[in-house]
Design goal:
The protein has about 280 residues and is mostly beta strands. Helix content is about 5%, strand content about 40%. The structure holds copper (II) ion. Copper (II) ion binds near residues 197, 256, 258, 267 and 272.
């Protein structure tokens, strides 16, 4: 199996609790910490962001200047490995390294649109990759859409964010702590499974089904039968991302496209696709 074709089959060892920190750590006089902000601009086929980014809880704002679809897949390069080794591994055939950990990022907005997700950036080498394929089947990473950067310094106090709704990703399901509702809400997505998972939320057009959307992802013929409504890219076991959703009533579908560690099929083929009515 070539990593460039099925790049998200990243084997991950261990688990790291993210920023689900105790609220007891902040005294009443402590100023409320805010997430740091990082803008990532995507175009065909490059990412633009600083070479060096401060550590801490950070809201990643993806601006897609298209015209193709792009996402931000953040990975942390661990265990003393280097960005050069990471880039070599991306080019090489064979299993992906165990020292690369997926830490999420904003999932796919419409071309010309924006998406956001809040992640914890720890010091060390990182990369942003786009694994979405063009209509020729070639993933954007193979067209140059990978950018490495260094996270530096020491993180300040983490913001005390209480999510409105929590979602746990497992093999192969999305479990919500309570129903999503119309309006703005903060969703915390956590992966409890050994495999990495993502969530991509699509609001279906009137009369369209999840099957219509899947058919469209295979041939991209004409306009999509729905529109992206938020999501996060793959996160390894133990990682969480927060995102703000702004929903209206309607039919939605939740999808994970991450290839399975066992058979290489996207997780949606293992049942990791779910329809929701938001009312
Ligand atoms: Cu999955």
């Amino acid at each position: 199996m070539r990593w460039l074709i099925l790049p998200l089959v990243l084997v991950v060892a261990g688990a790291g609790a993210m920023y689900l920190r105790s609220s007891a750590s902040a005294g009443p006089e402590a100023a409320a910490a805010e997430p740091l902000q990082l803008t990532v601009t995507a175009r065909d086929f490059v990412f633009e962001l600083p070479d060096s980014v401060p550590a801490g809880v950070t809201t990643i704002n993806l601006v897609n200047q298209g015209p193709e679809f792009h996402h931000v897949q953040l990975v942390r390069i661990e265990d003393g490995h280097t960005v050069a080794e990471f880039l070599d591994a991306l080019r090489a055939e064979g299993p992906p390294p165990t020292w690369v950990r997926e830490i999420g990022g904003p999932n796919t907005p419409l071309p010309g649109g924006t998406a956001q997700a809040t992640v914890e950036l720890e010091p060390g080498p990182h990369a942003i990759v786009c694994f979405i394929p063009s209509s020729d089947g070639v993933p954007h990473v193979a067209k140059g859409m990978v950018q490495t950067f260094e996270v530096t310094g020491v993180a300040g106090p983490a913001p005390e964010v209480t999510p409105d709704v929590e979602m746990v990703l497992s093999d192969y399901d999305f479990t919500l702590s309570k129903p999503l509702t119309p309006g703005r809400q903060v969703l915390r997505v956590h992966n409890s499974a050994d495999q990495p998972h993502e969530v991509f939320l699509v609001q279906l057009d009137n009369g369209k089904t999840a099957a219509d959307f899947l058919a469209w992802t295979e041939n991209s013929d004409g306009p999509p039968p729905g529109r992206p409504a938020g999501g996060i890219t793959a996160i390894a076991k133990g990682i969480s991302n927060d995102l703000t959703l702004d929903l209206t009533q309607g039919e939605y579908v939740l999808i994970c496209f991450v290839p399975d560690a066992g058979d290489g099929k996207p997780h949606l083929a293992h049942g990791m696709i779910k329809t929701l009515t938001i009312q």
